[in-house]
């Protein structure tokens, strides 16, 4: 779905599909240099990071295995609950392997901090984070972190991110207009 199909619901388009894919390619090139000759396990965070994870994997020029995890750290009102609840655990053994967590947006850092701690316990050879979007107030992590774009506050939808289950199929990343938030 293109932004023009839901233009009345959007405050602004942050990044077009072309801008996103160009940046994903740049992230993949950097990761490719840093992990030259090594096989990578991408751990995608469902559901928002599915699109980003697959696009990143396709842009990498090395062998990649993809695993998925799902967790929730927000209540239905989108306020942080202060705790992370695991909904789907990783099905892969990552011990001794190079792991990169793929996430579309890092906001409070609560979910990512929990995920890093959980995956560290599984003894990977290395652990890193690759996020397409990062809020300016998000914390730094004790692992290498690759970031596509820093973004200002606002409810971002598109490119896998949703609001109440809608807009994930929007090809761009956009800020949802206040009147569309119910």
Automatic annotation (TrEMBL):
A Pfam family: Pribosyltran
Catalytic activity: GMP + diphosphate = guanine + 5-phospho-alpha-D-ribose 1-diphosphate; IMP + diphosphate = hypoxanthine + 5-phospho-alpha-D-ribose 1-diphosphate
Domain spans labelled Phosphoribosyltransferase: 17-163
Entry GO CC: cytosol
InterPro entries hit by this protein: HGPRT, Hxn_phspho_trans, PRTase-like, PRTase_dom
GO BP: any one term: GMP salvage
Keyword field: Cytoplasm, Glycosyltransferase, Magnesium, Metal-binding, Nucleotide-binding, Purine salvage, Transferase
Pathway(s) served: Purine metabolism; GMP biosynthesis via salvage pathway; GMP from guanine: step 1/1; Purine metabolism; IMP biosynthesis via salvage pathway; IMP from hypoxanthine: step 1/1
EC category name: transferase
Subcellular location: Cytoplasm
Cofactors (names): Mg(2+)
Gene Ontology terms, MF aspect: guanine phosphoribosyltransferase activity; hypoxanthine phosphoribosyltransferase activity; magnesium ion binding; nucleotide binding
EC number: 2.4.2.8
Family affiliation: Belongs to the purine/pyrimidine phosphoribosyltransferase family.
PANTHER family membership: HYPOXANTHINE PHOSPHORIBOSYLTRANSFERASE, HYPOXANTHINE-GUANINE PHOSPHORIBOSYLTRANSFERASE
Protein name, as recorded: Hypoxanthine phosphoribosyltransferase
UniProt organism field: Couchioplanes caeruleus subsp. caeruleus
The organism's taxonomic lineage, starting at the top: Bacteria, Bacillati, Actinomycetota, Actinomycetes, Micromonosporales
């Amino acid at each position: 779905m293109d932004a023009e199909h839901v233009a009345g619901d959007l405050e602004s388009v942050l990044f077009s599909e072309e801008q996103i894919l160009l940046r994903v390619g740049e992230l993949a090139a950097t990761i490719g240099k840093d992990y030259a000759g090594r096989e990578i396990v991408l751990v995608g965070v469902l559901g928002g990071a599915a699109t980003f994870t697959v696009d990143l994997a396709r842009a990498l020029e090395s062998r990649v295995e993809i695993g998925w995890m799902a967790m929730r750290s927000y209540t239905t009102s989108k306020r942080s609950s202060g705790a992370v609840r695991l909904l789907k655990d990783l099905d892969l053994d990552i011990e001794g392997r190079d792991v990169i967590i793929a996430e579309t947006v890092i906001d409070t850092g609560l979910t990512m901090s929990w995920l890093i701690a959980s995956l560290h316990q599984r003894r990977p050879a290395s652990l890193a984070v690759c996020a397409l979007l990062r809020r300016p107030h998000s914390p730094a992590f004790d692992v290498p972190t690759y970031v596509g774009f820093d973004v200002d506050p606002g409810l971002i939808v598109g490119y896998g991110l949703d609001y109440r289950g809608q807009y994930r199929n929007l090809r761009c990343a956009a800020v949802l207009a206040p009147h569309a938030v119910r």
